[in-house]
Design a protein that fits this description.
7% of the residues are buried. The N and C termini lie far apart (69 Å). The protein has 116 residues and is an all-alpha fold. It is built from seven helices and no strands. It is extended, with a radius of gyration of 29 Å. Helix 3 crosses helix 4. Helices cover 63% and strands 0% of the residues.
């Protein structure tokens, strides 16, 4: 059943245009990136966003070994929070919680009060 939506999404991905960011990263073709931004945004004024993309691309190229850098001590709190979010729900899964049995749900305790 899941194969049909997956096939539709996969075929649809073939027809998606490149993003302005990927055009700048792969080909450094800022003119095509500007045209793509204008098409997507529907306005001619995209210079500020284009300049931001160019600056971010040049900054990312100066970063050597980004996957090695993320393991450094400086970034450990963020990594720890990311993994903790996945671990904590597993520690307190529903299978570990006690649930009342059918007898406990249907049992009615009758309390006899002393007569006054």
């Amino acid at each position: 059943m899941a194969a049909v939506p997956a096939a539709i999404l996969s075929l649809g991905a073939l027809f998606l245009p490149e993003t302005a960011n990927s055009l700048i990263q792969r080909t450094d073709d800022t003119e095509r990136a500007k045209l793509m931004l204008q098409r997507v945004r529907g306005t001619e004024d995209v210079e500020a966003e284009l300049n931001d993309l160019i600056q971010a691309n040049s900054t990312s190229k100066t970063n050597e070994h980004p996957f090695k850098n993320i393991i450094r001590r400086r970034y450990r709190p963020q990594l720890d929070n990311r993994t903790r979010r996945k671990r904590v729900p597993n520690l307190f899964s529903l299978s570990l919680l006690p649930f009342p049995s059918k007898e406990e749900k249907t049992r009615v305790d009758v309390i006899k009060l002393p007569k006054a």
